[in-house]
Predict the structure.
Amino acid sequence: MKRMLVSLMVMFMLLLASQSFAQPARQPQIEVFGGIAIPLAPDAFKDYFKMGFSPHIQYVMFPSARLGVSFGVAYEKFTFDGDKLKENMDLGGYEIDVTGSASNVELGVGLRPYLTAPEVSTQIFLFGMATYNLLKTEWKVSGYGNTEEGSVKNNKPGAALGAGLEIPASESMNLILQGIFRFIFTEDETTSFVGITAGLVF
């Protein structure tokens, strides 16, 4: 499943990219944006972690006017919902406080085919990225005078797919809006979440 997802993404992006090299290139740009991240899978992630936040920065170069190549860094953080865990589990009357978080530093390289001509003021694009994810999970359990805490770190490959709009804001700056599906290929079940972001292009 993981290989199929990556293979389909690569074939689709290359197909679009093959149509893009006939026009002169755009100027490189720097993008700073951020937004929310909504857990999708697995169930333990979706059910017991709150909606997260996600700042990004990336550099995009253009081998042609209809194709961008992006290099980006992102950070996502999700807070554990200890109250929901206590609601859904029978703790036998024990008063236990559970806190924690899951975070990810993401390094990505991707392709961005544009669906609109360069002279159109509002640009529509698709994108796909291969990512490398530096994951960290932390937790703290307290009750009856005792506290236990710990953390786990993992490094995992992943992928991202999405679409966006680039809208002029001034002569030197654009607004960027994006919807992003992110997949991290963890051991048991692929971890996934959707991001909705907005920011500036320089």
Q: What stands out?
A: The two ends are 38 Å apart (CA to CA). The domain at 2-201 is CATH 2.40.160.20 (Porin). The beta strands are 29-41, 52-64, 67-79, 97-113, 123-143, 146-168, 174-184, 191-201. Residues 13 and 132 are 19 Å apart (CA to CA).
